[in-house]
Amino acid sequence: MENNLPFSDIKYYPVADNIRLRPATLNDVEIALPWYQDMEVLKYTAAIERDTPYDRETVRSMYQYLLKIGECYIIEIEKDSTWLPIGDVTLSEETIPIVIGRKEFWGRGIAKNVLLYLIQRAKDIGYTRIKAQEIYDFNTRSLSLFRSLGFKELQKTEHGIEMELRLDE
Ligand SMILES: CC(C)(COP(=O)(O)OP(=O)(O)OC[C@H]1O[C@@H](n2cnc3c(N)ncnc32)[C@H](O)[C@@H]1OP(=O)(O)O)[C@@H](O)C(=O)NCCC(=O)NCCS
Asked: Tens digit of pLDDT for each residue in 73-90?
């Protein structure tokens, strides 16, 4: 589903003063491609046994999938009075994949703010839980991120753990 909304019709969701989300479309494949061609980013996502960057078709298929399973957003931050797309996140009950595709923005609390916002959104739309699918053992940044938000280990997986946040307790 191509979405060619006029510029003025794009909806933005403010997460913090300098962070916002906008619904992703397949037009974002071009924007996201460099993130998924950076092996340092890719090694932490669903590509443990993959040693080549994603190509355009793979990113496109991934976005088609993410747009189907939940609410897929592009994360933007304000820098020098311009909004920059720096990553993506998808809210669904079965998984909440998040990628800050530009490494220079890691460790600044951006993912934490985005996930806090989406946890509230999940509550508002009646989710009873959110699962985080396999987080690799070596992804200490992601493990501490999800733990600090209250996610608990659900089960061990081949290369890490699956986590869950209960929203009905
Ligand atoms: C994992 C990722 C989304 C985290 O995003 P981020 O914006 O860098 O994370 P934040 O700055 O919001 O940090 C959130 C938490 O991560 C932890 N963290 C941050 N920097 C860290 C570091 N260098 N080492 C270990 N933990 C770290 C902290 O616990 C922090 O929580 P706190 O505020 O309670 O201290 C980002 O690094 C990324 O996109 N990595 C590649 C893709 C990926 O791993 N995605 C997740 C797959 S499961």
From this structure: 999 999 999 999 999 999
The alpha carbon of 9 and the centre of ligand 1 are apart by a number of angstroms equal to 32
Give yes or no for residue 19 CB within 6 A of ligand 1: no
What's the CATH code of the domain at 155? 3.40.630.30
Instruction: Determine, yes or no, domain membership for 3.
Output: no
- Strand locations in 44-103, DSSP E? 71-79, 82-91, 98-100
The residues with which 132 forms a beta bridge, in sequence order, are 163
Q: Given this model, what pLDDT does residue 4 score?
A: 57
Ligand 1 pocket residue status of 90, Cβ below 6 Å: no
Give the Å distance between the CA of 140 and the centre of ligand 1: 8
pLDDT at 110: 98
Spacing, Cα 40 to ligand 1 middle (Å): 14
Q: Which atom of ligand 1 is nearest to the CA of 110?
A: 7
The answer to the question of residue 8 being in a domain is no
Read off the pLDDT of residues 137-157 as tens digits, 9 standing for 90 and up.
999 999 999 999 999 999 999
**Rounded Cα–Cα distance for residues 22 and 82 (Å):** 15
Q: What is the mean pLDDT of residues 53-57?
A: 95
Helix, strand, coil percentages (3-state) for the chain, rounded to 5, are: 35, 30, 35
